[in-house]
Please model this.
Amino acid sequence: MYTRTAVNLAQLTLLVAALYIAGKLLSSYWVGLMTEALIWALFALSLDILLGHTGLPSLGHAAFFGIGAYAAAIWFLNVGQNFWVCLAVGLGAAALLALLYGLLVLRTVGVYFLMITLALAQVLWAIVFSWRSVTNGDDGIRNIGRDHIEFVGLRFGETGDYFLFVLGVFAIATIGILVVLRSPFGYSLRGIRESSARMEALGYNVWLYKLLAFLVSGTIGGLAGVLFVFDKNYVNPEAAGVVVSAEVMLMIILGGAGTLFGPIIGAFTIVFLSHGISSITERWNLIMGVIYVLVVVFAPNGVTGLFARVRQPAD
Amino acid sequence: MSYWLVQILNGVSFGVLLFLLSAGLSLIFGLMRIINLAHGSFYLLGAYVGIAIMGMTGSFWLALAFAPVAVALISIVLHRFLLNHVVGNELGQVLMTFGILLIISDVSLWLWGGAPLMLEKPLVFEGSVNLAGATYPLYRLVITGAGLMAALGLWLLIERTRVGAIVRASVDDHEMVQGIGINLPLMTSLVFALGALLAGLSGVLAGPILGVYPGADFVVVLLAFAVVIIGGLGSLKGAFWGSLFVGLVDNFGKTMIPEFAMFTIFVPMAVVLAVRPTGIFGKA
Model:
């Protein structure tokens, strides 16, 4: 167990080093894409805590992405432009929402869990869509600037520098997630996934474990949202919409749920693919739809699943 | 007084359209345990195909007769070749039906463009009637009547016929039904097609008042979800009362607090789920 965590940490270090080098070599177009892919990878990892590890298939994870992005953006434009304060506001809002939603959804499992998470995310989407005086409705919030922000010599206005910052945040957050998931807490979550009745009988407070998983997952989802809004400099209600929720789920399934690298591979694949397709043809929604269907038919356990069966069972 | 009457009638006419839409969703879930996110696409296709048929023939009646059938045929293909892969796999269902939703919405955008289209109603239903001092569009009354007739027909089919008894038995116990020699795969195909047919029908009927536009599939599938969540999955009764509730609440929300119209549906839904997770008439 200890050694496997060490192996994963080494693999992660290699990945971060490779991305660092790629960031130095590639043009700013590709670096921008990699920034986006890293943000989605972090978002996918956060959902996988629920979906892959705890067995709670949320179809409303965009709510946390959206509230993180919107809270940071609204604070930025109305209160103060300090990046760290915006970050804290975004994380705090996402954490509060996760607690609130967690209290509502955790009575349900399976299909009903899917539907109530979708419904609640839709409530948030409706708020940002309708509350024009604060969120600017479907026009979205523009003019979020990052040019003035500097941190340890990184000027966020530069594409390459912001990429490095996102890479750093990604590395720290991913190590954090790995440590949590390999702790007794993480093993308890997987126990709940396999049999919540048995965990209950063993004396675990299943509800509390699920709530904590929801809180951690939602807060990291909010972190991805804050990074996203400072990357794009704008946010609109789509960020909290069902397309985002479905897309992040696709990333996890494509890469392999319940694995460390699955969500990362899935996020990079989908981000690069959708940019590639949308630059070639207007019909990229059609092609994305076909990809959804193909993934479900041919790789229901994800690309890592294709290999993991042979080597070792995924935990 | 007449204001309230008009609003209630509007809500009820929208409610019966929602019933046609969500009855299929609910039955399909009950029978196959499949959550079909693409169910709203059947509505969208019904409306667009109806417009196409009207463009070719100029007849609303032909559109009303054949567009739902076309949708049902498409649904049989989807069911046979795609959805059969994901029975018992919730995540797979979500992703696959979401993919189908994207495909159908993009193909529709391709074929019919991005501008909202209206279906022309037949001349017989033009004009309005006098109701307790208020003038009310005739077509909406016709929709309400047609929808209630369809609901009655569906209820008779499910509750009073042998086929309906098989469907109800299948909802409760798949294995037992197959054990006594009933062809369950054929049953599910038929019910799936019936659900799609009704959704297509609601698309054609709604065409003259709501119109059809890219994104309508998302809007209506979420409303249908709200209906089955509130009413309970797998229950026709739940779909009926849920539809009327959502139709009325949505209508009053839009007229009284337009800024927060979405809330008026999703908040009751969240409350129902929190208090009674299987819906008001749902089976656990």
